[in-house]
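Reopening: MOB1A kinase still failing for me.
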Amino acid sequence: CFVSGSRSSKTFKPKKNIPEGSHQYELLKHAEATLGSGNLRQAVMLPEGEDLNEWIAVNTVDFFNQINMLYGTITEFCTEASCPVMSAGPRYEYHWADGTNIKKPIKCSAPKYIDYLMTWVQDQLDDETLFPSKIGVPFPKNFMSVAKTILKRLFRVYAHIYHQHFDSVMRLQEEAHLNTSFKHFIFFVQEFNLIDRRELAPLQELIEKLGSKDR
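Support: Ran it again with your exact input. Result attached.
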């Protein structure tokens, strides 16, 4: 576990497990097997005969777990003092609002923002009406818009890590892990058009570089 200090243990969320033996678990295993082939473009494609919502749900949970773990490795470098605002480089700053508890966007430090964000995502993933884990329970009509919001917000954690903490990632020799995870994430959201191009602007150069290597 990558927890260090009292504050980081708050941000480091417990892993969200997909119930073993469930159809979603089989889908996750399929995703892992295709990922192992090394072809990420192919790995993100909807498996034949599968439900798109279910595929997006399984992968969203997986990305939450990955980002959670990656951020967990650098929490000691991401502090109120080092990151007083949640930013992705000098041109992009994020303010937090979840529409229920915090309706008006508030300016806060990166660790605080990421704590709000990960707690909010976890609440969505734990909500059986949004992310049903039982076979035959339909996804709600607003599922796709909720999934898009989750992925848009998870992208911001990648953006913050790349812009503000990449030197720490390199010192920890985590950059290959970070790059693979991010590339998988980007190919997935591009495949199903899940994040508006405007939102991806803070890492546009990196996205183009990762994509060109795979053409």
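The beta strands are 86-87, 93-94. If you still see a failure, please send the error message rather than a screenshot.
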